[in-house]
């Protein structure tokens, strides 16, 4: 946050911080992806359940479990695709333009975040059925 504010203040003065956008992008991707698993386990994410109020409890329970299952499967499939991208970046040593920081560590952190979130969603599907 301090980096973003400092860059915003210095930019109009002609003294922007080199690589600020890269660092902010890397940090944002890592923090958001790693925060997904935590938000899923602590139930601090947004959930819209207005339709479940009008359904019988049994049907609502199964629909909720199905939603968790589909979402979990999506994130676990995304792990495969994002993980492949990370491996490719590692092999070719893809780096950022300004600071020459490798892409693959951040991509692997995003992969880890997606994996943990996918597992949490599958766990929530099992809990919803019980």
TrEMBL record:
Keywords in alphabetical order: Cell membrane, Membrane, Transmembrane, Transmembrane helix, Transport
Domain of life: Bacteria
Chain ranges passing through the membrane: 20-41, 62-83, 103-122
Domain Tripartite ATP-independent periplasmic transporters DctQ component: 1-129
Localization: Cell membrane
Pfam families xref list: DctQ
Name listed for the protein in its UniProt record: Tripartite ATP-independent periplasmic transporters DctQ component domain-containing protein
Organism: Dissulfuribacter thermophilus
Lineage of source species: Bacteria, Pseudomonadati, Thermodesulfobacteriota, Dissulfuribacteria, Dissulfuribacterales
């Amino acid at each position: 946050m301090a980096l973003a504010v400092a860059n915003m203040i210095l930019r109009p003065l002609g003294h922007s911080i080199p690589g600020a956008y890269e660092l902010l992008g890397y940090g944002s991707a890592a923090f958001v992806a790693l925060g997904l698993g935590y938000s899923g386990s602590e139930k601090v994410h947004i959930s819209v359940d207005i339709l479940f109020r009008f359904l019988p409890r049994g049907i609502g329970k199964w629909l909720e479990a199905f939603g968790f299952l589909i979402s979990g499967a999506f994130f676990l499939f995304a792990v495969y695709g994002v993980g492949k991208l990370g491996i490719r970046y590692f092999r070719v040593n893809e780096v950022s333009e300004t600071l020459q920081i490798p892409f693959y560590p951040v991509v692997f952190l995003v992969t880890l975040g997606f994996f943990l979130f996918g597992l949490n969603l599958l766990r929530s599907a099992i809990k919803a059925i019980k």
